[in-house]
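Q: Convert this sequence to structure tokens.
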Amino acid sequence: MGPAGLLSLVGASGAQAAGTPLLLDLGHTISPGGDDLSHGRALDCWEVRKHNSSEWCRFIRSNPDCRLEGGFLNYLEGVFCVFPPRLLPLAITLYALWLLYLFIILGVTAEKFFCPNLSAISTNLKLSHNVAGVTFLAFGNGAPDVFSAVVAFSDPRTAGLAIGAVFGAGVFVTTVVAGGIALVKPFTAASRPFLRDVIFYMVAVFLTFMVLYFGRITLGEALGYLGLYVFYVFTVVLCTWIHRRQRGEGLAPPRPWEPEMLTDAEEQESLGTNSGDYGEEYRPLLPSQETSLRILTTALSPLDYRKWRRKPWYWRLFKVFRVPVELVLLLTVPVVDPDKDDLNWKRPLNCLHILTSPLLCVLTLKSGAYGLYQIQGVFPVWGLVILVGSVLAIIIFITTSNEQPPKYHCVFAFLGFLASAMWINAAATELVNILRTLGIIFQLSNTVLGLTLLAWGNSIGDTFSDLTMARQGYPRMAFSACFGGIIFNILVGVGLGCLLQMTSSQLVVKLEPDSLLVWVLAGALGLSLVFSFVSVPAQCFQLGKVYGICLIIYYLAFLCVALLTEFRVIHLSTV
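A:
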């Protein structure tokens, strides 16, 4: 095993000396094999398939490199110890299905719960649409990407997933999604916002390239990532103010926030966070007092049966898979909707949230390690949370009414934000662990898994929403979203991910790109941005089908080169 691979194993086991930089291995290092394990030397877990199938379980359980950080399930022991070798294809199939379901959990949580609460928070803080769009809305849309990057950076063995996902999603969005928008609806791009976003993104990619080149990121550089995003937000606000001042409008006062996260209109009713909103023809002639039990059952229903009957079979099938996720989220995550007269106040359900949301937070933080901790060795933390939450829920239920939300209802938006963030973090942890497991099974590097499965999964929602927006006649808005969102992902994902790994005695995180694929990925993203930066102004910002076809062909070529590099067909010659 080479020095870099050995250091990565030392970093993974937490054996760094004080002041020694943490090394994040962005590839996989292949050991020469042999009897290293029996002599006490840890092997790369990637080598398990090189042993006899009868030794797989012992290899996984005795090798420190095969320990998964965080998460509720041990996927490596499951596939190599629980399932016999002849049922390996069945285990892979089940893992693939669970991987798809994790993407559904991430999408539903971010779309239906995380984003609405962020919108409510921005409304309570009286932020303008521009500031909210590049801060809270960007955070909501990029939550799965950022949380996945932070979780991946937390383990030196999965850091390649973070780099692969951040760069891979950038290439995918700026080529396939942007090209698809030009194919669906040729349009004239907004010149100044386009140039501003591309320049900022090119700077972010260049900074990441330099960090990879020098092989480390310091505290100042990590803070520089976050500072650059703050400067980007300031630039967006300043450009908007100048543009409106030139038009004689000034800064428009903030209006009630209009959430853009709902993909179809029926979900606003089927979410279950409204009660009795059946349309004018279904409203009762006389107002009636609903009982608390009826309000609770209506609010917890994720289905609208009238719309269910009108939808096609494939929509119903997908909805069946979403219903369990939505039901659990409805039980644990409050949602505040500033566009409704009652702000989506459901007294019995919101009182239940006072108990379930904090309980969710302590049981998902560090995979339940804090929640199961016993105070003085006697009373568990989760028991204390239940006790305090029950008392507060009873007090709120007694002092409020079903019809009028309390003055402190906005606090539920912050509680919903925290609870949905914990759900996303838990799902992202499982996602990273199962991707690492699939990489070990198929002997694929974390980088290629990040630029394919993780990048595609996190970008699929943005792809559909942007293309739908373009079909509805808003291609400029969709095209701007392609570049604005991924700026947040790379700057906050890399900056915050590395910053959280630093301690007072360890202010440097090393990033060691051991494979050529990392440089192929970084170069491909930079080249795609340069192509758009040159070609779009050359076309006088008139983007048509030729531009879209060129971008999609570019992505297919990049994908072929990346896969050929992964399988060693393309490699650097050694003298």
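Residues 1-19, 28-41, 250-286 have pLDDT under 50 and may be disordered.
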